[in-house]
Design a protein that fits this description.
There is one protein chain. This protein is of the alpha/beta class and about 325 residues long. The protein is built from 13 helices and 10 strands. Strands 1, 2, 3, 4, 5, 6, 7, 8, 9 and 10 form a 10-stranded mixed sheet that branches. α6 links the parallel β5 and β6.
């Protein structure tokens, strides 16, 4: 028993050392490790389990495993955009979904990033729609009305958190003083709003987002969407045209009317060191099997070659450039 325990402890310590390693690109090393099925491992960093990133990431992992000989992919639940970029930059994940505003900060080395990150884009995907939902009894009708309210601003190190804080500031609110801020993932935010533990939640995701569908189906007219048109000009003045005007159609969540909102594109990013042939093959899969992704999430309907190359300010990976012929 002592020998077995010692071996077990040694293995555990080795795992801790491996997880504690900092810097460097470990994706190539991990990809060379065989899986149980004999393929090379690819990890896709996604987001909360009831968000579109996770759903679409699972669909992409399935496409890779079924159609890219020699590779097996898995989708990993994460805090989303900022964390995903950090994971890809470190080599802990091979691919990651991210909002373009977080990606812009990453390549410029600002915001949550202390230095420029070594990422490249495979494609611009679909748009994220900022979805602010409040309880009807809270009386919230615009972002400024969140003053003094209990608000979920999304998971730590997520794109939702980035845009939540910017929205509050654009409305003239101090996120740390004017609201009771809770950094919750989408499932926890939905549950808290249902139970009365929150007055509102802010979420950035594709349409429809399963967690928001669950919320509106359960609460019906007790949940209201908050329009964002009044804060968009200041967002653009502070952060540029990465933020644009959009609308959540009333049929998406069976709401009384369309809701004006703020739209941010999503990117699929990889480490700059990814093999160009692999990067090109994954990019090709997305378009060759586009219908399969749409079957997984309606948000994928927006993916098309015309907009896919518009990943600025993140550079396209050389493998993706070759596929697009640019």
């Amino acid at each position: 028993m002592r020998l077995l325990s010692a071996a077990f402890m040694a293995a555990c310590m080795a795992g801790v050392v491996a997880l504690a390693g900092c810097g460097g690109d470990r994706s190539a090393e991990r990809a060379e490790q065989p899986t149980g099925g004999g393929g090379k491992r690819l990890s896709i960093a996604t987001g909360n389990t009831t968000g579109v990133y996770y759903i679409m990431g699972g669909g992409l992992a399935d496409l890779i495993t079924k159609n890219l000989p020699g590779y097996e992919a898995t989708a990993e639940a994460t805090g989303a955009s900022v964390e995903n970029i950090q994971r890809v930059a470190r080599g802990d994940s091979d691919l990651g979904f991210t909002l373009a505003d977080s990606a812009a900060d990453a390549v410029q080395g600002k915001g949550a990033f202390s230095a420029p990150q070594p990422i490249r884009a495979l494609a611009r995907l679909y748009n994220n729609y900022t979805q602010v939902v409040a309880s009807a009894e809270s009386g919230v009708k615009r972002i400024a009305d969140l003053k003094g309210k209990r608000v979920s601003t999304g998971s730590p190190n997520s794109g939702t958190e980035v845009i939540s804080l910017r929205l509050l500031k654009a409305a003239g609110l101090d996120p740390d003083k004017d609201v009771t801020r809770q950094a919750l993932g989408l499932p926890e935010s939905v549950d808290a709003l249902k139970s009365g533990g929150l007055d509102a939640l802010i979420w950035s995701g594709g349409l429809p987002t399963p967690g928001i569908t669950d919320l509106t189906t359960t609460m019906k007219d007790e949940a209201v969407f908050v329009p964002l048109a009044d804060v968009l000009p200041r967002l653009q003045a502070e952060h540029g045209q990465v933020y644009t005007a959009g609308s959540i159609g009333k049929d998406v969540y069976q709401a009384p009317a369309d809701v004006a909102t703020v739209v941010v594109p999503n990117l699929l990013v990889v480490n700059e060191k990814m093999d160009p042939a692999l990067a090109g093959s994954i990019t090709k899969l997305i378009f060759d099997h586009h219908a399969d992704l749409v079957a997984v999430s309606k948000a994928a309907t927006e993916i098309n070659k015309e907009t896919a190359v518009r990943t600025e300010p993140v550079m396209l990976h050389d493998g993706a450039k070759k596929y697009f012929g640019s």
